[in-house]
Amino acid sequence: MTWCMYALGGGWGHLVRALAFARIASRHHPIVILTNCPHLPLIQSSSSWQKEVKEFGLQLRFIPIPSEATIDSVCHEMPKIIRDIAPEVLFVDTFPRGIVGDLVPILPKMQQCQRIFVHRDISPNYLLAYHIEEFVLKHYSQTVSVERFTPLSHIGTTSEPWVMRSSRELGPGNQEAGIVICVSGKVEEQELFEMVSLKLCHLTKKITILSARHPKIVNKNIIWSRHFPGIEVINKAELVVGSGGYHTVYECQVTRKKLISITFSRLYDQQKRRCQKNNIAYFESDKMIGSDKNPIAQVLNLLLREIDAHQVQIKHPFNEKNEK
After folding, report:
1. Which of 29, 55, 58, 251 is most buried, by the most CB atoms less than 10 A from its CB?
2. How many CB atoms neighbour CB 108 within 10 A?
């Protein structure tokens, strides 16, 4: 019987969590992943992923939902999609009601199906506004928290984070990628990371920008990588600079790489809280924007303090006045 993974969310996180589970489970069960991640073609074309599918005979297919799909279209199409799959087990990532409430009319009709809520940390505002704990207890067979400190961990079980490679699979890392800048999120956030990269490349020998989108900046010390899975690049980092997103944080934990985080405000995710709970050096990007001081200069000064504390070799200290 088929298992179905509902991984709608728009960014990398929901799909990569689903893949982290499916790459193991689909060796034994056919799995269908529903996703609206715009980076699905990049993953499917990855030589690493294609090799894994062939080597292990993964019984896995995707149903892409257009990222520009309207609320009405998702709510209209989702019942038919789920009905046609007729899953024995349904996994729902992060949003138990569906990304736009599209699962609300479906779940009561799926009593013969095991319904598993995959629980990542999420905004308390969402939990309160939609009475999520009550909803999950009523409509789900089981809750699996895929990180510690989730607000509903008391009603289910907690697993290790779902990432694409275990430390055993990766083996010992090295530092050949230099400082790895993990870029994800919005376009303006990519621009911030690229500016940080451009400044840091004058202070260290090698920067690797890990990003699905081609960076706009050009420098002989900067290398662009869109390798999937990104954790294999992180495993070669001397130091990682990235957001406080789920995979950035936990892939650094698995690879035992130092992460310096620039946290961003999200409607549902809690990057700042994740960094706090995991004892990660961070600062908040939204406190930089709108300041009288140059935000890039502030970012770099904070980064360099952490880099210095981590004893990463740099050529010279950054001087904020050069950025004014």
Report:
1. 251
2. 10
